[in-house]
Amino acid sequence: MSSPAIATARVAVAEVTAQPRRRPFPWSTIVVHGLLILAIAVIAFPLYYAFVISTQDIQEVIQKPPLLLPSSHLKENYAAAWEKAHMGRLLINSAVMAVAIAVGKIAISMLSAFAIVYFSFRGRQLVFWTIFLTLMLPIPVRILPTYEVVGNLGWLNTYAGLTIPLMASATATFLFRQFYLTIPNELAEAAQLDGCGPMKFLWSFLLPLSWANIAALFVVLFIYGWNEYLWPMLITNTEEMRTVVIGLETLIPRSGTELPTWNLIMAGAMMALLPPVLIILVMQRWFVKGLIESEK
Amino acid sequence: MAAGAVRRTVFRNRWLPYVLVLPQMAVTVVFFCWPAGKSFYLSLFKSPPFGGRDIFVGLENFRQLLTTPEYYDSVINSFVFAGGVTAISVILGLVVAALANQKIRGLSVYRTALLWPYGVAPAVSGIIFLFIFHPAYGVLPYALSFVTTYEFNWLLKGWIAMTLVIVATAWTHLGYNIAFYLAGLQAIPGSVMEAADVDGAGLIRRFTSIVVPLLSPVTFYLVVVNMVFAFFSSFGVIHAVTQGGPGGATDIMVYKTWKDGFVGLNLGSSAAQSVILMAVVIGLTMLQFKFVEKRVTY
Known about the structure:
The complex is a heterodimer. By secondary structure, chain A is mainly α. Helix content of chain A is about 70%, strand content about 0%. Chain A has helices at about 1-15, 25-55, 60, 75-85, 85-120, 125-135, 145-150, 160-165, 170-180, 185-195, 200-210, 210-225, 230-235, 245, 260-280, 285-295. In chain A, helix 4 (about 75-85) crosses helix 15, helix 12 (about 210-225) runs antiparallel to helix 15 and helix 12 (about 210-225) packs across helix 16. The radius of gyration of chain A is 26 Å and the shape is globular. Chain B is globular, with a radius of gyration of 24 Å. The longest helix of chain B has about 30 residues, at about 70-100. Chain B is mainly α. In chain B, helix 2 packs across helix 13, helix 7 packs antiparallel against helix 10 and helix 10 (about 215-230) packs antiparallel against helix 13 (about 265-295). The interface between A and B is large, with 114 and 103 residues.
């Protein structure tokens, strides 16, 4: 604990004793910028490469040396991939799944966090720890029985089956609980004195205060829902119900006889990754907040 | 952490709180607790492949698992995979975040340019890297062919297939670690850095003797979270890219659990593998909460 104090003292001493220095040429700043741009280029390369391939015809794709510049077949490749993989339907399913999971998780987590923070009731501890338990039960540890439950409910190949079983969320509940605890108790007491009931309080006071948290969670949960792979693969087996992340796999031929149309596969990959990446870019501030706060 | 520790109950209502927690509880019990319990139950039975009643076999499923070399291979593969993903994305995440945290212009632009791969599903990333690694047309084997005559073919060599799925997964998760390290770095008081600067510590010296030790709680947390992520969210990249091959070289525990249950229809064995995975996740989660406790007592 004492090190910052010492450090501040040192700075103070240094400020007093240091001679006015001439500002040296900012070599280190330039090096830092250079290294960062290099990192960004390396990180962006796979996406660039996928994009480049998605614009080439098959001759250009397999030529040597590999052509690392975009070609002129963008439109026809994307149209062909769209047609072949029924992209429209896949993208709609992914969007429904991602939005429903995000909204559902946020809604039921807000409600249960509200109950846990603002009410005293028998079994509150039990509720809290049951929600906590879900952190330790990812899909693979209950894979067969969960599938069986969804089957018994008749939810295979339905949006209900794709979304509702994933809506429990310990992280979202804890985030809202944490946030409600920072709101002064006087707010609820004053509201109550004015004759405001609990649901009215939740709707007119807590909800408007929670928008930043809701936006942050929405981005993170949307990405989670969009990119979920194992669950839609288990729950759906018809083409109309597949999501884009698993539908893409069908573009890859497994037999040796078929010539793989890598340009179409990459066009499909671009379409599958663009929506979540765009959401991150557009909602960057919320994304970072959601990422960091929902994991505490 | 416990709910009872907080006293701020304002509203009084006999039934409303139960209605409020009902949706969450219903989903949790029906789709989490009950199936998890059923996994335990199933792990003690053998189901005849052509129907008929389950036969109680005690711990026989576990005994069979623990005596097959294939299962050990999948355990080792899982740790190699998770360890590889974690090492790459945590170390690179720290280095890149430390660079971005230098007092330079345009931090928010850099941050955006570094974070976006988090939006790419590991399976989609896997498909892109599959082509980068493609033995006939990929740019990586082509580039390597100038340096070495080694046949860089992931379809034939297990370690290359493993490298492929590790790199593809680490790529999507790097942004997550950068975000956490940036947040951690911004919490380091500026005076500490200034003092080091005055003392003449260079960029690298400051990094190794100030940034790394001060961020060690963040690192510990990220290692655990990355391990959990690599263990349990990596089904997609394996299924879409290598399908466990070549020759089982990328057959990880999660993939094998699914395959034995849904393809091999060996329900008892699959359930026993689920139970073992549960032990793994409980162990990792407890590690994670050790960290939270530590931070609370700071």
